[in-house]
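Risk mitigation, structural track. In case the binding assays with calcium ion fail to produce interpretable data, a predicted complex structure has been prepared as a fallback.
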Amino acid sequence: MKTFFSYHKALMQLLHSAGFSALSQRTKLEALLTLCGDLLKTDSVSIWSMSSCGASLNREFYYQPQSGHHYLPYTLTRAEHALYFKVLEEAEILVTHDATQDPRTQSLRGTYVGHGSDVAAMLDVPIYDGNRLYGVLCLESAAQRHWSLPDIACATAFADTVSLTNTHQAWLNSRKELDYITHHDDFTGLQNRHSLEHRLQQLIQKDVPNHFALLWFDIDRLNTINNGLGDQVGDAVVSEVAARLRGLLLPGKDMVARVGGDEFAMLYAWPDDDSELAATVASIMDTLHQPIYIGQQKLVVTTSVGVALYPRDTDDINSLLRCSESAMYHAKACGRRQAQFYNQAVSVSAKARFLLESQLIDALANNGLSVFYQPIMSADLQTLVSCEALVRWSHPRAGFLSPAEFLPLAYEAGLMTELDLWVLERVCQDIKQARTQGLCMPTVAVNLSADTVMDPLLADKVFNLLEHYQIQGGQLELEMIEDAIKGDSSTLSDTLAQLVRMGIKLSIDDFGTGYSSLLRLKNLPFTKLKIDRSFIQDLPHDIDDCALTLSILGMARGLGLAVVAEGVENIDQEQWLQQQGCHYLQGFKYHRPMPVSDFFALLKAGMTHE
Ligand code: C2E
Ligand code: CA
Ligand code: CA
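Fallback model:
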């Protein structure tokens, strides 16, 4: 038994030697085979692994004390060597001093053992991977050999060690997998919020002060894409945006993570030069805004980005996350498709966001909102043809808040439908009020968000309001953005048809910013297009905007639609639009949105004027 103890001691020394545990699995196994072969003085030691279906054993490692390690693949099939496989499967140790005579190894005779081969005696011990038979450790001798008890005990100890390292490796792999699952988003393969926070922690803990920017991206109107074009298209958009962010070759780019359904974060080594950083952010957005092709469909998807800087804006991880996110909301509120750097203004709105949301709910319930009216003029400026109702919130402390400041909040909080219906009701009340005062209220255009347009009960709700306030449908016009009418839902076409039957006019708002196909427009009951202010802004100096506006006007003429230009502020824009045959003009040049009392006064003045 003395020998066994010396074998065992050598094995323990190897296992506990410095660096053994850090070796790769392959190197560990080679070291074990070397020691085993050298200690037991066999002619060869090998490790065979079972194929995953169990049909064959394949030699993976082969060591000969006299000549070292070799790569000598060899395969034994279950079909040919059923008995030998059975022995291994029954967890038996196969000990034979003469394999040519042993019934269990008869099938190996002539090829693997016996004449012309290097194998006469065999000592084979099964090895495992967890509970699964992994393969076999084979000690072989070219001449007959009577294996001693210490030989067998030692071979078993080596086989068990191989089983243990296998199991450990499997455990390491499963840990890696688990780690992958906890740190990655399985849809896009990007890291997740958990990893982002972990990485932030690392960056912040470094002794050398780090400067970096946290960029927070949000895909604009993904909801409308999902609703209109289907979830699959939405998913494809999300994974394309993820792939583009991942693929960015940007010096200083650190980590990209998916932090929400359509939200992504990127860590970026801040160049300490604001204009350089701004240029980088702009170029990233440019990449994201390139068209996305999904099947036959071409989509231009935009994003809003918030940027917060460490340590300039804050040196705390949680508030850094909040800062960039709220800067992103600010970007959305300012009209989307833009980047917003965190600053004091955003900060106030960030801190107040939560409070604001509950106040907004309160305002909705207690008539804390109001409606302003902005006149829309005929192109010859002779007639106030209609007006647009625009919501305002007279906040108890902050004063009048513009929709840009609170609509994104209402949108996020799922309050848009409630808000739109509140505005609609207030407009009906004002129309009724005008009538009581003997005023002739022009058609009022009311904005509807995509959520509201999708509401299957919208037509019923509008009908009830008209009845309740005794108002003709012709008094109302409903404006919706292109995104709201995308897709082929039958609910949508039913709703639109019912509204038109009530005499209500429908117009498309912010035209040019979405992706309407002309063909679709032709089939839907719209009578008016409103050209987005962003296209009017630089008329007539910007050639692209001129071309776009002209093409919208031409198309509208072809489809028999009237056109309103929004945001007319100066005489150059006005004259150009008049010359091109735009039908209606709306903008600060004529009137700003005003409270209902001012609007009534304007109507009264108009009547006496006539
Ligand atoms: P919009 O539908 O495009 O409304 C026109 C916006 O342009 C209004 O901003 C109006 O005040 C502004 N505007 C008009 N003329 C000019 C001009 O000459 N120059 C400039 N710079 N701006 C001009 P407002 O009232 O801040 O509304 C912003 C957006 O909020 C609206 O854009 C609309 O999309 C949304 N909104 C307003 N009220 C409601 C509502 O009751 N429901 C819904 N769903 N959305 C609303
Ligand atoms: Ca509008
Ligand atoms: Ca508009």
